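hey can u check if this looks right to u? its 122 residues, i copy pasted from the old doc so theres a chance i mangled smth
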Amino acid sequence: EEQTAESGGGPVQAGGSHRVSCTANGFNFDASDMGWYRQAQGKECELVSSISGDGRRTWYANSVKGRFTVSLDNTKRTVDLQMNDLKPEDTAVYYCKDESSGCLPLSELEAWGQGKLVTVSS
């Protein structure tokens, strides 16, 4: 299975910026897009952004379009999500994984414990 090492997370003031990163060990950049997901309390998991293996195609959810930027370094096997103009509704646990496999079940996400909680407050 894909192995990821996450970094980032923490409290952020509304309107501020933050970056979450992961090293996607074992990810096949030729086979599928890499995605950033977020799981907010009381809400369904959401695919926030994805990027193709060559880095040339990107996709953003409407809720974050214009504020978030995804980037990929193929050599380092890293995928970063730069989050700007953060809003309280962005509060969630963020994680990256192969986009083709979809969201992690909540129980699995919690057991894994390596997603990064970003808490946005006024």
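The two ends are 39 Å apart (CA to CA).
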